[in-house]
Amino acid sequence: MDKRIGTYIRKARIEKSYSQEGLCKGICAVSYLSKIELGQVHASQEIIQMLFQRLDLYYETDSAYLKEVKQSIEECYHLLFHAFDISKLKEKVLNLKKNEKRLSSSPFFLDFYLLENISILMKKDIPSLQTVQEESIQNSLHSLEEYIETMDQRQYELYTLSNALLYEKEELFEKVVKLNPCAFYTDAYGSWLFIKGKYVRAVELLQRAYDNALQEGSLYLALDAKFSQGMCYTSLDETLMLESFQIAIEFAKALQKEDLVFAAYYNIATYYMEIGKMDVAYSYLIQYEHKDVLYAHKMAICLENLHKKEEALTWIHKGREYENINDLDMLMLDVVEYRLTHENYKKDNIYIDMLMHTFERLQKERAKGFAYYHLSYVLEVLEANRKYKEAYYMLKKFSQKF
């Protein structure tokens, strides 16, 4: 018998205030129930079913269904560890969730809930989850804590990573990489370090992830690791940034990941914008036009600095029309538009308030690079208003990210 079933029975018994004597009366001996709960005996399906019935639990015994679920679970793990396709993983998990009652009373309930949590947690663009999602995952992981002793190695590793991502604990990332230094876990750790602005350490982990991915034959993970490495180098080294992104672009083209081809060109352009080479940045942006609000934002800034005001405003208007825009994106566009339409914006309180509000939100809601890019505009305003001390502390604060 699966040891997890015994743990499931014990948990339900305690929740429903059953004593062992009360639960097993007329079914089996107390000592035998104790062994079932500890996973020390292989109880018959008949006994398990009777215990489940008394606890008002459902126990799945359909062999055809269980075989189908097992296959689906393994496909989910493949999507996660090898194909690295989080979108397809989410689709697969949602499909499984349609029969959650049956699944939650099968030997695969742990795998399902772990995969469901990780499919939500594997988000790199937003450091924090929505409150409802976060609470849901917290509750799920807390309930799964009861089953730690019954988890197999793969489940425990995924449980550890889920906690690392949710609670942002570096020691848990280190733990899971020690448990299994495969490409997936190493890439997850390196990518998290990148989001946290710990670029030097991230580069090291991502190189290991890239090497491991090639050895494991996972080209999608190799692409992800090399792309993230390129992102790190945008804050460290121009030559290595270009080399990393070029490799990522070749992988992305071969794997038909057009969104990542665009993202590579976009981030190279962003790098050159940060160092004031707007003409070079523009040359990268126009290579791969994209209907995306952040692309429109970058185009507007490039054209602003190339003194092409009308073209810049055109891109502001385009950006506002895209479906994927949110209120923070809108604020970023508003800041650029205000500069374009107000000559003396540096000492304009409306602009200053708008910029500082946007800057504060970017620090909380986006990866560090977003706030860092807007730092130059914040310093520009502080200098124009002779707030040199504030500018110094702001610059000092952001220099610590390296």
UniProtKB/TrEMBL annotation:
Listed SUPFAM superfamilies: lambda repressor-like DNA-binding domains (SSF47413), TPR-like (SSF48452)
Name of one Pfam family that matches: HTH_3
CDD domains (UniProt xref): HTH_XRE
A GO molecular function held by the record: DNA binding
Organism domain of life: Bacteria
Coiled coil: none
Domain HTH cro/C1-type, chain residue ranges per copy: 9-66
InterPro entries: Cro/C1-type_HTH (IPR001387), Lambda_DNA-bd_dom_sf (IPR010982), TPR-like_helical_dom_sf (IPR011990)
Name of the protein in its database record: Transcriptional regulator
